[in-house]
Write a structure and sequence with these properties.
The protein is built from 13 helices and seven strands. The protein is of the alpha/beta class. Among the domains are: 116 residues, 2-Layer Sandwich (Nucleotidyltransferase, domain 5), CATH 3.30.420; 100 residues, no CATH class. A hairpin with a 4-residue loop joins β4 and β5. α2 packs across α3 and α6 runs antiparallel to α7.
Length: 316
């Protein structure tokens, strides 16, 4: 239990963890890296994520995001693995989460097919909070596209391409979000209809202003492509970008998913690549278990101790 906690939550590599137990026992105990990997394997086997998936499917919102990781193995067809030689493969850890639950999955590629293989969004009928990733638009009933990412891009357009229009749009989104936050603080559950109509009208006006500014710019001029892409996005995804103000249960930001992946990114920096595909899968299951326990206010060590391990005592 302690070994699993230190390895997965504490991000201590197997080699350093082996040295730790050796020192802690005054050189009496030597736990090999293979044994530590087996301990993680047993812990992962004891975790059943189906109840977590059920919790996600019964919620109104699922936050989804993904991050790349490095691994020396990855699946190659049904039941087969390929091994990297003198290099590493890229793979992807994806999070599906809400305020009480986190489920991480591992896939060799970040394709729509991999989302189907995860078999979570394929069964979900609700709001998907995401970062404007095209494949996710093919699942769920509605989409709350992340306003934090949008305002960050708009800030860059204003500062780098000197587009004043981008600053106006960014300011408009922050005003809407501030208004929603005030409403929620005051226990209001919906935007006042007349104000919502004004917000929607202003959104259309800003999209039209962006289109007009684009027609005044020579193609391939400085900032032209950035403005063109942003105007197209706002026109084509109006429902997604305004959902947070139309429905107060829809989040403005997808930061919840980003926070769930922060540990994975830190692990990548600290520990480097995964040495096996099984190690990636074990990490995802254990990290799902620990992240969910933390969201629910549980003690992580107590939660790990409660698992029914297969081949070593729960107190190990």
């Amino acid at each position: 239990m302690i070994a699993v906690y230190l390895c997965v939550s504490g991000l201590i590599a197997f080699k350093r963890l082996s040295e730790f137990f050796h020192e802690l026992s005054h050189n009496l105990i030597t736990v090999s890296k293979a044994s530590l990997a087996e301990i993680n394997r047993n812990a992962a086997d004891a975790i059943d994520l189906e109840a977590y998936v059920h919790d996600l499917l019964n919620g109104k919102v699922i936050n989804v995001d993904e991050t790349p990781v490095k691994t020396t193995e990855r699946p190659k067809g049904p039941g087969a693995l390929e091994t990297a030689e003198k290099t590493t493969f890229s793979a992807y850890i994806r999070t599906y989460s809400n305020n009480t639950t986190t489920v991480l999955t591992a896939n060799p590629h970040k394709t729509e097919e991999s989302v189907v293989m995860d078999n979570i969004l394929t069964r979900f009928h609700g709001i998907i909070s995401q970062d404007h990733e095209s494949k996710f638009y093919n699942f769920g009933d509605k989409h709350a596209t992340c306003g934090t990412h949008l305002t960050r891009e708009l800030k860059g357009m204003h500062e780098l391409q000197l587009l004043e229009w981008a600053a106006d749009v960014r300011r408009f989104f922050l005003i809407m979000n501030n208004h929603k936050n005030e409403d929620v603080h005051n226990k209001k559950t919906a935007c006042e209809p007349l104000l919502l109509h004004r917000f929607e009208t202003r959104y259309d006006e800003l999209a039209d202003e962006g289109r007009l500014a684009l027609t005044a710019m020579p193609p391939k001029s400085f900032g032209y492509d950035e403005l063109r892409r942003m105007v197209n996005r706002l026109e084509n995804h109006k429902d997604n970008y305004l959902l947070f103000i139309r429905d107060y249960e829809a989040p403005f930001t997808n930061n919840l998913a980003e926070r769930d992946l922060r540990h994975c990114k830190t692990r990548q920096k600290v520990s480097g690549c995964f040495r096996s595909w099984q190690g990636v899968l074990d990490y995802c299951k254990i990290r799902s278990f620990l992240a969910t326990a933390k969201k629910r206010g549980e003690n992580l060590l107590v939660a790990l101790e409660g698992l029914r391990y297969n081949s070593f005592p729960a107190g190990q």
